[in-house]
Amino acid sequence: MIRSIKCLFIAALISTVGSGISAQTADWQKGAPASWMQVLERARSEGKVIVGGPEALAKPMAEAFKRDTGVNLEYLGGSSRDLSARLNREARAKSLTIDLMLGGGSELLTLYPEKLLEAIKPQLMLPTVTGPENWIDGKLKWMDKEEAYFFQGSNWVFGWAVVNPTLVPQGTLRTWKDLLKPQFQGKIVAFDPRSGGPGQAAANYLAEQFGPDYLKALFADQRTVYTRDGRQLVEWIARGSYAIGLGAVASDIELFRSQGIRTMYIPDLEDGPGSLLGGFSVIKQPVGAPHPNASTVFLNWYASQPGQTVFSRVMLEPSLRVDVSTDNMPDYIKPKQGLSYIDQYVGDWYLNTRPQLDKIVTQTLGGP
Description:
12 helices, six-stranded mixed sheet, 368 residues, alpha/beta
């Protein structure tokens, strides 16, 4: 059931992407300097660029990039953990088969301090990319303190709960403290917070917001069940196997909703609106990438309106560009004015706060 829903959902997204971008592509190179055409010609001579990232992007991104640039995109789909490990090995061995990587910020802890990443900022050549008028808050967002190596295309809210309305009627949950009520013991499921990914991100948010005692009360005392399958988590909530889910991601929730399944809602919990994540939108380039000109072209295209539209619509991660529509995005992941969020995609948080929170989670909940 899950696989068939997933295939239909991805096919619908690809169709939406293809139909929504064609009228926008003509202007993304507007105002380009003469040197841009030279880079583009050299990129076509190199023949391709090799990019690693989430599997769902493979077909729509390759087709759109080829259409817009004339350069082939060889896309390596896989888990962030596996692709990052491969990039680390190759960069250290100076034997690279990957030009660019889409994912999170884990390389801040590995390749970045080892000076094995290429600066991206100097390669952004197009006015439609670098102009402050194109971006929310009037500037591009970077994870690193130099604001040059970890470009972040998306920003969205995470750290909420997904709830079955037949088991927990809307309006029942008003705060995170409500999840500690006795009637919810044994009725909560979470993406395993001890194993990285969305479960860890959710647990880190709760640890920072409420402290280790709350973490223990929620996960241990409430006998929360763990899973490492995000779609299984959402299916359990949709079917009523569990009442409340933690660590679910929007793409899995919307996958079920696209098939008319409505037995899920996301409550507004007034004591904690969530954290801000960049998801898989952060792009990095290792030193010595095999196709340097094609990499430069991809970087500019990825940060442009058509590139960000493909990424945003497929991954359901709202772009930081002001000209990329969020109409197909669920409201619960869109940052709201007037609310205070913890930004987990800032270099200082990632390098200093996150390790402390990881330690709290491990000490409180044990190892995987």
